[in-house]
Amino acid sequence: MLSFLRFASCPFCNLRINELVRRFGEFGDDFTIIAVFDSPLDNLTRHAEGHKAPFPILADENNKYYREYGIEHSVIGMLKGMFLRMPTLLKGMFKGYIPTTIKGSMTTMPADFLIDREGIIQVAYYGKDEGDHLSFDSVKEFSLK
Asked: 56, 57, 128, 136: which is deepest, by most CB within 10 A?
């Protein structure tokens, strides 16, 4: 799975990484994740190292790969997520994922790609708002094929 996230201190994105790390053992043996943040490496390191992820978490400060994969920016999506997903936002903040340093675009929307063993994208999921990701169950089902 290739997962594009927002800036490194985004509460929604850190909750997503937290869930993927916590439940990583539920995925198939040959499954892995690459998470990419719209953030400079130094800022990402500060926010991501606490996850102790069993998969790479990368920075794409210049949005090279974001552009190649057609990752979208949306002010409406940012506002929609902020208001409609307020309980999730608060849950992330209570877990300590407080956006104190915003380095990267606040309007970047998340996206998840499920890629098969031959490198072919089987599922391309573009988030409709800042907290919208492909469901964990969909990722798990794909990982066990």
From this structure: 57
